[in-house]
Hints:
There is one protein chain. The chain is built from seven helices and eleven strands. The protein is globular, with a radius of gyration of 18 Å. It has 262 residues and is of the alpha/beta class. An eight-stranded mixed β-sheet has the order 5-4-3-2-1-9-10-11, sandwiched between helices. Strands 6-8-7 form a three-stranded antiparallel β-sheet, with helices on one face. The two termini are 28 Å apart. It has two domains: 2-90 and 170-261, Rossmann fold (3-Layer(aba) Sandwich); 96-166, Hypothetical Protein Ta0175, Chain: A, domain 2.
Amino acid sequence: MADKLINAALSDICLIATDMDGTLTQSGKFTPALLQALTDLTAAKIQVIVTTGRSAGWVSGLAAYLPVAGVIAENGGLYYHNGEQLLTSLSSITDLTSHRQQLEEIFQKLKHKFPYIQESADNRFRLTDWTFDVQPLQVKQLQQLEQLCAQLGWGFTYSNVQCHIKPLSQDKGAGLLQVMRQYFPQFTLEQVVTVGDSPNDESLFNPSYFKHSVGVANVRDYANQMQHQPTYITSAAEGEGFCELAAYLLKNKLKSANQIER
């Protein structure tokens, strides 16, 4: 990865937008190495936004306790900015109650065809999407679910954890662009690197918007299931892969600072 990243001149990166599960986590947990990497990035003035499929309820705590600039929840539906108590809606939903009812109706239609799918434990804490467990679904079944949602006028995506029924236009990439315009207008897209590991991160790999995208090594498990692929892939998987990227960016930042001093 390093040689390619050198050619991409990532020493100018000021913002990292990263997935969480399978990208920041290692075997489902945050490690001391990850927390240190996030702390070191903040100290080096490289801001981090977590962009996850996890629910609004989970994410409000993450935004407060992790050393990050903010957290995008529900695959681009909502944003919590560090230091602010209120969330920002990134999805054009006018009536949340009606929206949740519609999502449940779609889920019941999917369940009629796939009776073994199970609502996710955190679904009750959600506002903009509806989730069910990705296990034990196979790729063919996931493709069928996506087609069914499209026929019903809804979007569908999945990660290594959950399947998401969502508004058609709602995804991580669109949410990130909106957050950048509103909260980080000082940064250009050339100064952003996006990081992920699974199909619900695909919009972060779209080269039309994000030139610098990185997949941690386990993204290879989904290589045949995504149209957009990350530009670079780390040697290590999961959180260790993110720490690999962080170490590289910090090294480049230090090198650039030393050159300026000379």
